[in-house]
Amino acid sequence: MKPLSQHTRKLRAGLAFCHCHADREQQDNNLLAIATESTILYRKFSFVSLIFAALLISQEANAADKALPQKLDIEFLSALIGPVKVNGKPWDAAANINRTAVSMISDMIAPGSGIAASSVVSAVAKDAPQGTSAPDVIGYVVQKGTTTTSLAKVAGIPLALALNRQKTQDSYTPRFYAEYQGWPVYEGTRFQVQLWDKDLIRNDQIAVVELNYDQLSQAAKSEKPVWINVADQSMKQLLYILISVTPSLRNTAPKMNGYRWN
């Protein structure tokens, strides 16, 4: 075999160096790509971790807030009774029923209707059977669910909303007389309202409904009396409960103001 010339040997050595350099450069590029991708993944993971941690902290804070009671002044002011019983008859004396108006009122209180409670009150006052056909409302409120150890023996005592001697005669919007002052309200605290139409022989039950923690908390933020829609709990015999809720002053001792239900 003929020996390679010096020029050829140099040429081959140069090519080998170029290949080696190219391979090394490719390796460096691959390592750089891997490092860049790892950095991006790490940053993404860190960002997701921060979001998850923030959500977890927020949830824990909300849970802690609900674990501690709010101290509220809760006054029961009134209610809006439906224009007719669930069977379509008037509450008391016989009367002509405006079926179109009753249907319209039913649509007004439907979830998502966007109709203000005040408009529903006006519609009932205008179109429901009036006079002795309207109900004579009596009833009470009682706290249910979570309370403090010190209040366990009294929280379950029914507090009269309207007694026989103080009922609002022939009215769809009875006046109530009951207040919980400085009252601890937990996430599991509820207030049950039971109402009847007072009759000579047998009282007609209007409804048994409950107001929960979330409803009371929202009412406390409104800084004015709020109509709470309870129609879906009562087959539309009781449409709303009117309450006023405000945060209690510091160191206000829990107290029930009103009359004990007989």
User: Averaged pLDDT, please?
Assistant: 85
Overall spatial form: elongated
What is the C-alpha radius of gyration, as a whole number of Å?
36 Å
Give the beta-strand count. 9
**CATH class type of the largest domain:** Mainly Beta
Low-confidence stretches: none
How large a portion of the residues is in β-strands, by DSSP E? 25-35%
- Give the helix tally: 4
CATH level 3 topology of the largest domain: Immunoglobulin-like
> Whole-Å distance between the termini?
126 Å
The CATH architecture name of the largest domain reads Sandwich
Give the fraction of residues assigned to helices.
25-40%
* Structural domain count: 2
CATH H-level superfamily of the largest domain: C2 domain
**Within the largest sheet, what's the order of strands?**
7-8-1-4-9
Order of helices and strands: HEHHEEEEEHEEE
Give a quick account of the main beta sheet: strands, pairing sense, barrel closure: 5 strands, antiparallel
In terms of structural class, how would the helical and strand content be classed?
alpha+beta
Give an overview of the whole structure.
- This protein is an alpha+beta fold and 262 residues long.
- The chain folds into 2 domains: 1-67; 69-258, Immunoglobulin-like (Sandwich), CATH 2.60.40.150.
- 35% of the residues lie in helices and 27% in strands.
- The protein has 4 helices and 9 strands, in the order αβααβββββαβββ.
- It has helices at 6-67, 99-108, 117-127, 213-222; strands spanning 70-81, 137-145, 159-162, 175-185, 189-197, 204-211, 226-229, 238-247, 255-258.
- The protein has a 5-stranded antiparallel β-sheet with strand order 7-8-1-4-9. A 4-stranded antiparallel β-sheet has the order 3-2-5-6.
- β5 and β6 (204-211) form a beta hairpin.
- α2 (99-108) packs antiparallel against α3 (117-127).
- It is elongated, with a radius of gyration of 36 Å.
- It starts with 5 loop residues before the first helix and ends with a strand.
